[in-house]
Write a structure and sequence with these properties.
The complex is a heterodimer of chains A (348) and B (263).
Chain A: H1 12-31, H2 39-49, H3 61-96, H4 108-122, H5 133-155, H6 162-186, H7 191-198, H8 207-225, H9 228-233, H10 238-243, H11 248-270, H12 276-287, H13 292-316, H14 325-347
Chain B: E1 4-13, E2 16-26, E3 31-35, H1 42-49, E4 56-61, E5 64-65, H2 71-77, E6 78-81, H3 93-98, H4 113-125, H5 141-154, E7 159-163, H6 171-188, E8 191-195, H7 199-205, E9 208-213, E10 216-221, H8 223-226, H9 229-236, E11 240-245, E12 248-253
Parallel strand pairs in B: 3-8, 3-9, 6-7, 7-8
Antiparallel strand pairs in B: 1-2, 1-4, 4-5, 9-10, 11-12
The chains are: A mainly alpha (348), B alpha/beta (263).
């Protein structure tokens, strides 16, 4: 009797398609650059690293170094950061029931920017520290931003949540950005360095950054993935979700903390890369559907692919110079943002 | 059959008291309707019973105190149909009705065969089978109301709270929905508490009425005790005639008497 009743979910074919897109993006990202690498060479080089396999890849020592120390960590980092930012965007949109919610709307990015600016302007030289203080400071700042937003939002809510929290986020972001700009302008010998960081960059990507953020990204992704059904439950609003047995405050808190931790980790190593959290989840919704059962996993995968390709464009368009990746994503994201604004305006 | 009991219940929104010193007993398997002018606190009473608003006093569902129970347990006992349900974009009718099974699904797990079967049964009973794959935002008012009711029934809760279940419906669908609720009440022993603006519809279905004004009960009892011309005039400021038929009372608005003004 119930054979014809099936809830919306992630179809295997969609998952496969997304993985193929990601694999394609990763391969192109590794192969294309000022020194082109051959696919066969890269594959043999990879196989050579497997245990018990001895293969001559045919790559020169220089090519091998470019592959392992430049291309691969950079592509890996772009993939991880892109997946995380897209996932955070989707999670915030679900939790706040706002199609424009994004890691950048909630003070996360502004907090990270402030933390990084302070580290660059006042911190001791990175060499004096056992670890680079920049990502750590950004990380602390990002957490500060979310916490302030959450505290402000909660203090002013009284039953209602969505709009207050986002307004609080906008206020927090403006305030933190103001302080950040002040610090940046006062310390004018570091202005260029700060700008480079603010615009977003994967130029200095190394395996160290990949290893640094990986545990955060895994924790964050798993936490959000297991809540995907409850993210759908939140779509009927707090009151109805509560009446259906969902502890909305707890679910919201867990997802916000998970998404913010992941975002902070991503921002800490890659600078401020905007709009990924808007572009990717909405593209997934347009192509596949709006249930979080599919939006969450597909956003992670396609977010990774998107940022790898955006980075590729950034580093090849005016090579040997690079366009900061934040510029590329903003260039694509801003029109997209307006499109969503128009669409959601029509629905409302 | 599960009864609802409210003792000295008070609710405040900020500093403003919305419901004060409210007592109510809804016997298991009966249908009680709250009536009263806009802002009298009818919806707030329902929200308090559903644990959706903080309240003073005691509310018990069967033997469970609303204050001391978890959301999940409460959702297994009480299903709430709001006046203006949110229709999520992109959810199918199946997805939407399946939400009603949430109280039976583990926190981080997904629905089981049993949940799907329960949804299938409810969809069949409400004649919604042909709509299963439809987007809920594309439904007409009458279809949407049935889908919302289906979600509430999928909750398999013994208590059903209905907030203005007919306000968005034409007269045919109004009857359909209320007949369906009454059938279920008789069949499965649902305990029903509803709010209603339409006093005639209220008079046809409920066994007991409570008239609220400014958060307090000002009259209660059966139809003859509450649906009275003088009470409706005093609390609604409306001029009506009350007629009777075999299933209850019929409240008909009529133009108030007016002095002819000579030109």
């Amino acid at each position: 009797m119930s054979a014809d009743i099936r809830p919306t979910g992630l179809r295997a074919s969609w998952l496969l398609l997304a993985l193929v897109v990601l694999a394609g993006a990763l391969v192109i990202g590794v192969l294309v650059g000022p020194v082109p690498l051959k696919l066969s060479g890269v594959l043999r080089e990879l196989a050579d690293r497997l245990p018990f396999v001895q293969l001559s890849s045919g790559l020169s020592e220089q090519q091998s170094a470019i592959l392992w120390q430049l291309r691969m960590p950079r592509v890996a980092l772009a993939g991880l950061v892109g997946g995380m930012l897209a996932l955070s965007g989707a999670a915030y949109q679900g939790v706040f029931r706002n199609p424009l919610a994004d890691p950048y709307l909630l003070g996360v990015a502004a907090g990270a920017g402030l933390g990084a600016t302070i580290a660059i302007a006042y911190g001791p030289a990175a060499a004096d520290w056992p670890v680079d203080p920049l990502p750590l400071a950004a990380f602390a700042g990002a957490l500060l931003g979310v916490s302030v937003t959450y505290a402000l939002g909660r203090a002013n809510l009284r039953g209602r949540t969505t709009a207050t929290l986002i307004l609080a986020g906008v206020a927090t972001a403006s305030f933190l950005t103001a302080i950040q700009t002040y610090v940046q302008q006062r310390e004018d010998d570091t202005v260029r360095q700060v700008y480079a960081w603010i615009l977003g960059q994967l130029t200095t990507a190394s395996w160290r950054e990949v290893v640094l953020i990986l545990p955060y990204l895994i924790m964050s992704s798993v936490a959000i993935l297991v809540h995907r059904r409850l993210l759908d439950m939140l779509s009927v609003g707090d009151e109805e979700a509560s009446s259906l047995g969902v502890n909305t405050q707890r679910v919201r808190l867990i997802i916000v903390v998970a998404a913010s931790l992941g975002t902070a980790a991503a921002v800490a190593v890659s600078g401020l890369i905007g709009f990924v959290g808007v572009i990717v989840p909405h593209t997934v919704r347009l192509l596949f559907g709006s249930s979080y059962r599919l939006v969450v996993p597909l956003s992670i995968i396609l977010g990774g692919a998107f940022l790898v390709l955006a980075d590729l464009v950034g580093r090849t368009l005016i090579a040997p110079a690079e366009i900061p990746i934040g510029v590329i994503t903003a260039f694509l994201g801003a029109p997209f943002f307006l499109l969503i604004l128009r669409r959601s305006g029509r629905v409302a | 059959m599960i009864s609802i009991k409210l003792e000295e219940v008070g609710v405040q929104y900020g500093e403003t008291p919305v419901v004060e010193g409210f007592d109510l007993v809804v016997p298991g398997g009966s249908w009680v309707t709250l009536i009263g002018p806009n802002g009298a606190g009818k919806t707030t009473v329902l929200r308090a019973i559903g644990g959706l608003v903080d309240f003073e006093g005691d509310i018990t569902i069967g033997s469970v105190a609303v204050k001391d129970t978890t959301r999940k347990t409460l959702a297994q006992l009480v299903a709430y149909v709001p006046q203006r349900p949110v229709m999520p974009i992109g959810a199918t009718v199946t997805d939407y009705v399946l939400m009603g099974r949430n109280p039976y699904i583990g926190y981080l797990s997904t629905e089981s065969r049993r949940d799907i079967d329960a949804v299938a049964e409810v969809l069949g009973r409400l004649e919604l089978k042909e709509f299963t794959a439809r987007d809920v935002t594309s439904l007409s008012g009458g279809e949407a109301q049935r889908v919302v009711l289906a979600r509430a029934l999928a909750q398999a809760a013994p208590v059903l709270l209905l907030d203005e279940p007919t306000s968005e419906l034409d007269v045919g669908h109004q009857q359909q929905v209320l007949e369906l609720v009454d059938e279920l009440r008789l069949e499965v022993g649902l305990t029903v508490l509803s709010t209603m603006h339409d006093l005639t519809l209220a008079g046809q279905y409920a066994q007991e009425f409570v008239l609220l004004e400014n958060g307090r009960a000002v009259a209660r009892g059966n139809a003859e005790d509450v649906l009275r011309v003088d009470l409706i005039d005093r609390y609604y400021g409306a001029s009506v005639e009350v007629l009777a038929n075999s299933s209850g009372l019929i409240v008909v608005p009529k133009r108030p008497f007016r002095q002819e003004v000579s030109p």
